[in-house]
Amino acid sequence: MRGQVKRLIGISSSTQREYNCNGGKQMKIEMGESLFYSWLRHVKECQIVQTNWTTSSQWQLNHEDRLEEIMSTTDRFFTEQYGYSIYKKTSSLSQLLQQAECDAIGIEVQGGTNKIYAVDVAFHEAGLNYGTREATIKKIIAKSLRTAMCIYGYLDAREAEIIFASPKIHKSVLDGVAPCLADMQRIMDDLGFRFLFRIIANDDFRDKVLVPILKASNGVADTNELFIRSYQMMQMFEKKAVSPGKPVKPATSETQTPKEAEDTYSEMKIGKVAQLVMRPILESGRVSADEIVRLQSKEYSYDVLNLNFPLLVRTDAEYDKARYYSEPLHINGAEYVMCSQWIERPENNDRPYLMSWIREHQ
């Protein structure tokens, strides 16, 4: 698994280029951005995703006074607390925002509300390094804050998940940035925002980004998704290179510890977990015939999975098709469909029930 991470992510250590026949110019294609393009689409299920998101001088900037307050408050705090001039010589808000670029931004639209994800991704083969340890820490903080200000100023949103990701960050940098990140989170909370700042690095990068993408890559045939297409091609040739009779282990949660697998599932929506993890367990033959019968009961499905409908119904039975996934399951020679009505809200959360069932039967 680690070797595959290095081979796949390592493509981004040098920028890939594609010739643009229309204008004779070259267009940069960054593999790390392609990776998060796929992650936002297929793991976070964002309907709108853009890479290399930059601001336009033609856009109206909202809340300038509040943005000036954020800039001055954070600049003063990090200067006094850590001796970090996080905005360097950038003296004006307009100059700061003009410099903004987000590697990937995604918007998930669900139930009439929007959830925004903004990602900056960096890969340095020897470990993330913007010059010195201090410069690297300042860069992470400044990028995250500037992204938050752009989201508030141009998208008029006070809530978003803002991620800085790198497959390799040295412990000394992580130890140094952790208290800064906590302080930044506290400052923005105190100012009335609901931004969630995250760093995804090292093993978390593998378990929460790479493995979920690889698990979700089956059936994706979009040639724009360069990372997934590269992985699919690599798998094709690796399978050919294997000796006859020697099984090929997929680079998914089968190679992970239970804790790593839990981390992988935590980034997925509950319905995605049900389809990618529960479905193959049900079709594997490991689940007893008695359990399959019980899962066709509304009462048992509610007790065990917190569902308001039977988990399984036979395709030749009468059922509400709007409540079930259309793709059938084949279990012990019979054909079923699986309930799609998974809920994940603070007041009604099916996830712990589903994860408990998976742990018991995996």
Write a structural description.
By secondary structure, the chain is of the alpha+beta class. Among the domains are: 44-201, no CATH class; 269-362, no CATH class. It contains 13 helices and 12 strands. It has helices at 2-9, 31-43, 64-82, 93-98, 133-155, 171-190, 203-216, 226-241, 258-266, 270-283, 289-294, 298-305, 351-361, and strands spanning 16-19, 26-29, 48-54, 101-110, 113-121, 159-166, 194-201, 312-314, 329-331, 334-338, 344-345, 348-349. It has a 5-stranded mixed β-sheet, sandwiched between helices. The chain has a 3-stranded antiparallel β-sheet with strand order 8-10-9, with helices on one face. It has a two-stranded antiparallel ribbon with strand order 1-2. The longest helix is centred in the middle third of the chain and has 23 residues, at 133-155. The radius of gyration is 23 Å and the shape is elongated. The model is unreliable at 1-27 and 240-253 (pLDDT under 50).
| Distance linking N and C termini | 20 Å
Largest beta-sheet details? 5 strands, mixed
Helix content: 40-55%
Query: Quick check: average pLDDT?
Result: 84
- The counted number of beta strands is 12
